Automatic annotation (TrEMBL):
GO cellular component terms listed in the entry, alphabetical order: cytoplasm
Annotated localization: Cytoplasm
Chief location category: cytoplasm
Family as reported in the entry's similarity comment: Belongs to the TRAFAC class YlqF/YawG GTPase family. RsgA subfamily.
Cofactor note: Binds 1 zinc ion per subunit.
Protein's name according to its UniProt entry: Small ribosomal subunit biogenesis GTPase RsgA
EC main group: hydrolase
EC number: 3.6.1.-
Length: 294
């Protein structure tokens, strides 16, 4: 019995990394019977009957987290790629991404692209938002088109971590992926075909070694809804609200109409940004309007 990590899943096979080698494995039938499925990123126990033969995954170790789209487990962090222009910076979309990542206990890193497209006035307008997110506790990386120092700045961020990229289309995810994985040697715009978006290719997720860490060779999440978040859990997904909520009079305070709510007081005092609180209320309403699941 040996242990390793699944680095790639393709056509029913799982490729387990062990001492720099990839072992082609199948999953035991018992996983199907239990409704379980091994995921890329899983740490597993496997057996190989004879040298050179396929292995069999016998056991999946407990996961820190797991995503459905892309199907991947044990993610440490996500680089949220947001352009500041074309498309313009969008705080409500960024907050949606941040909330979902917080709910999965995945550390978000905000990467702002195309900074050089901003005029001085636009830069001045954007700066308070950058300062806000840094004050909340998020790392913010500012990048430029053809940014020669990008790889150098990302190496310490990626080292020793398992990372996925996320962001809407057109923000520069493909360019960033090309910078991090030059072995892909692909033109921007063609990358989707390599990743399984072409008509005749199989979509798959792969963890690739880069800068002393692992990077998911995938264009990121396609699902950023709140299906798995309950209303009582939403406060914890806004770090500055979570810190302040400890002083609310009532346990389980949702910070809407409750008396002696420390969060509402902090918003009025300007200690919590009004736009973040408004996004919280909007997301809360979305969760409360969600159809019950049976």
């Amino acid at each position: 019995m040996a242990t390793g990590q699944i680095r790639k899943a393709l056509s029913g096979y799982y490729y387990v990394e062990k001492d720099g080698q990839l072992i082609q494995c199948r999953g035991r039938g018992v996983f199907r019977n239990r409704g379980e499925s091994p995921l890329v990123g899983d740490f597993v126990e496997y057996t190989v009957e004879t040298a050179g033969s396929d292995g069999t995954i016998q056991k999946i170790f407990p996961r820190d987290n797991e995503l459905v789209r892309p199907p991947i487990a044990n993610i440490d962090q996500a680089i949220l790629v947001f352009s500041v222009k074309e498309p313009n910076f969008n705080t409500i979309l960024l907050d949606r991404f941040l909330v979902v990542l917080e709910s999965f206990h995945i550390q978000p890193i905000i990467c702002l692209t195309k900074m050089d497209l901003l005029s001085e006035a636009q830069r001045t307008e954007l700066q308070p938002y950058i300062d806000d997110y840094k004050e909340i506790g998020y790392d913010v990386i500012e990048t430029f088109i053809d940014d020669a120092s990008l790889m150098e700045r990302l190496v310490p961020v990626l080292e020793g971590k398992t990372t996925v990229l996320a962001g809407q289309s057109g923000v520069g995810k493909s360019t960033l992926l090309n910078t991090l994985l030059p072995s892909l040697a692909l033109k921007t715009g063609v990358i989707s075909q390599h990743l399984g978006r072409g008509k005749h290719t199989t979509r798959h997720v792969e963890l690739m070694e880069v800068a002393g860490g692992l990077l998911a060779d995938t264009p990121g999440f396609s699902s950023f809804d709140f299906d798995t978040i309950e209303r009582e859990e939403l406060t914890a997904c806004f770090p500055e609200l979570a810190r302040t909520a400890e002083s609310c009079k009532f346990r389980g305070c949702l910070h809407v109409k409750e008396p002696k709510c420390a969060v509402k007081d902090a918003v009025e005092a300007g200690e919590i940004r009004a736009y973040r609180y408004e996004h919280y209320l909007q997301f809360l309403e979305e969760i409360m309007d969600r159809k019950p699941r049976y």
